[in-house]
Amino acid sequence: MTPVLVLSAVLFATGMFGVLTRRNAITLLVSVEIMMNAGNLNLVAFSRLYQPELMTGQVFAIMGIGIAASEAAVGLALILTIYRRYGSTDVDRVRLLRE
Amino acid sequence: MLVERWISARIQLRVGPRHTGPYGTLQTVADIVKLLMKEDVRPVQADAMAFRLGPMLTAVPAVMSFAVIPFGAPLIMRDLNVGVLYFLAVPGVTAVGLLLAGWASYDNYSFLGGLRSSAQFISYEIPRTLVVVGVAMLAGSLRMSDVLEAQRSVPFVLLLPLGFVVYIVTTLAEINRTPFDIPEAESELVAGYHTEYSGFRWALFFLAEYGALFAASGFAAVLFLGGGNGPLLPPFVWFLIKTLAIVFLNMWVRWTLPRFRSDQLMRLAWKVFLPLSLVNLVLAGLVLQAVN
Amino acid sequence: MNEPYQSDVLFLLGFTLAVFALPVLTILAFRWLRPSHPGRLKGEPYESGVPQASIPRRPFHMAYYNFALVFIVFEVETLLLFAIAPVLRDLGWVALGEVAAFVGLVALGLFYAWRRGALVWR
Amino acid sequence: MGGGQAVLFVVMGVAAAVSALYAVLTRQLLRSIMALGAFLTAVAVEFYVLSADFVSLVQIFVYVGGVVVLMLFALMLSASGERHPMAGADRAGLGAVLAYLVGGVLAVTALRADLPEPGAFPEQTVSYLGRALLAEQLFAFELMGVILLAALVTALVVVRKERQ
Asked: What are the angstrom distances between the C-alpha of A14 and each of C41, D22, D30, D100?
């Protein structure tokens, strides 16, 4: 299972890299989704290791996917609203406009 | 496709294709050759990658969904543990293809057509999927062969008639066929998302539509009519008869009914079919308890 | 490890690749056979012969997003129902009651969106 | 892990990592979303390899057929793909060092962890999943319904506010 955990670490780092450096709100959301997937990968891997017949890890992975979907729905709603008001999905630009 | 043109001609009292080969049987071949030889035109401002990917992402899922359809007792490419879900999940990617194709073309009609098609697609996806949940409840499995096994005595259409009707109608809507073909309403949107496509790429959209039609009809035959189950004839023949009956029903509806308006269409999806599919779910639960 | 999962996923991957490859190869093969005369006029978007009225890169109705929004929420709910649907047959009334509570939540969501007017196409 | 499976896992893992990196680095929003779609598909395959077939299809259904579509809708409705050419990665060097430092710590922890060997896994995930959801995980199941309802209400309120 170690390779899975390493892969998940790499993906998580990539997502974090995106969150730290990008400024477009939609790309930020893309990066967050990458991080959440890294987490789900871990959950599924651990589901195989500990009490596989209880499926706890897989249940939590499904929950994770569901929560990521609702987060994307709310997040994009916010982004669209902000775009309508400020004409931009660039986080820095929006911050400038508000001051 | 040829058969569809014959049927459409018969219903609309026209003469169908009859010049190429005996009774026009070679018409389809001629069409394919013509499409392959046609020029591949791409608008200059189009996004090249999305323009190429769009038709692929609509056609490939349609073909891939055939992987889990049992064409007869042993004739199934792969009997997955989650075959039913696979059949519903994979064609869902089509919405991405529609949006991409519409956006990439850099054309107002295509853009609007792509948005409308995918909005319609996702709206009808929900009631369609919910109806299948009812079937999975009765079958007690998501594996295609188990679904067939559960219908050995009674096909599910008798237990869930409402579900069957909802499934058929939402499927029609999902693959953009009349009376639900607003997205490509010729009178308002030229040809919708595939306005800018020509030659083989256009043929891919066409293939996607027919592939999806046959796959969805075969799926309905398995889920509700018991697929290959039947007396005397071999399973494959029964499967074919049931599938073609549903395909014919589709074509008949297509060439008879007029088109809905897009607001009517969306209202229909959310305010009629979604509640109906919830009712179907409750009915399935009651049937389940009655059977136990 | 478990054999069935492995062979399933290998089959699905191979099938996907084949299905993807077929149209790509056809397009490439016929590249030499079909004519190609790109021209300025041909490269213009086709809008029934009328010159393009506006750039198709502009913000559009929020209504489309509304539908996508309601769609994704209901999709997750449907999938959760898919997870429990197969075992419902073997469990009793209690399980059915639990599922009924969940379906009630789904219906509540639908009712709210309906009252809110999110399901109206404008 | 067995031989064939290990190869498959590595190939899809590389595909996932590369598409994730592309999604994070590209300057075009459309490309970024498409790369996300490829990444999600690769992860779905990984789930299947790890014998989570149901989760894998949920991933395809909800993410590729749902979240990616949602993002494309948002992109098209805000149409910022062309009107505002996106800035590239900002403070890329510092961000990369920081992010991959965290990733490295995680990876080292994983390498040094003392994990048990994976045992046998049920042939049919679905029935176990369903039972778990209706028994041990019932709270999570009903909570999910509430969360989704809350998300629906919130998002509709946000979108609606703007219209008035």
From this structure: 44, 10, 19, 7
Which chain D residue has the Cα nearest residue B123?
D66
Omega of the bond leading into B74 within 30 degrees of 0 (cis): no
Q: Does A1 touch chain D (CB under 8 A)?
A: yes
Alpha helices in B92-107 (DSSP H): 94-104
| pLDDT beyond 50 at A47 | yes
Q: Are residues B154 and B271 both part of a single domain?
A: yes
Q: B112 with B98: CB under 8 angstroms?
A: no
Mutate to test the interface with A, among D46, D48, D163 (most CBs of A within 10 A): D46
Q: Which chains touch C (3 or more CB pairs under 8 A)?
A: A, B, D
DSSP state of A90: B
Q: In this structure, how many other beta carbons lie within 10 angstroms of the beta carbon of residue D164?
A: 4
Residue B236 CB-density burial (10 A; 0-12 exposed, 13-18 middle, 19+ buried): middle
Residue (of A42, A45, A38, A40) closest to A19 by Cα position: A38
Q: What percent of chain B has pLDDT over 90?
A: 2
Amino acid A42: pLDDT? 92
CB contact under 8 A, A80 and C83: no
Domain carrying residue A18: 2-98
Give the model confidence (pLDDT) of D17-26 as tens digits. Answer: 999 999 988 8
Beta bridge partners of A24: A90
Is B42 inside any structural domain? no
Count of CB pairs separated by less than 8 Å, B with C: 172
Which residues constitute the domain of residue B5? 1-37
Q: What is the pLDDT of residues B186-225, one digit of tens each?
A: 444 555 566 666 666 777 777 777 888 888 888 888 888 8
For residue B109, being part of any structural domain is answered with: yes
ipTM: 0.85
Q: Which domains does chain C have, with CATH numbers?
A: 3-116 (1.20.58.1610)
Contacting residues of D for B112, CB less than 8 Å apart: none
| Residue numbers in C near D83 (CB within 8 A) | 57
Q: Which pLDDT score, from 0 to 100, does residue D37 have?
A: 93
- Determine contact, residues C18/C11, Cβ cutoff 8 Å: no
Q: Report the mean per-residue pLDDT for chain B.
A: 75
Query: What pLDDT was estimated at residue B29?
Result: 59
Using a CB–CB cutoff of 8 Å, tell me whether C113 touches chain D: yes
Contact C9 D54 (CB under 8 A): no
Give the model's confidence band at D84: pLDDT under 50 very low, under 70 low, under 90 confident, else very high: very low
The correct answer on CATH 1.20.120.1200 for the domain covering D1-83 is: yes
Q: Is the pLDDT of residue D73 over 60?
A: yes
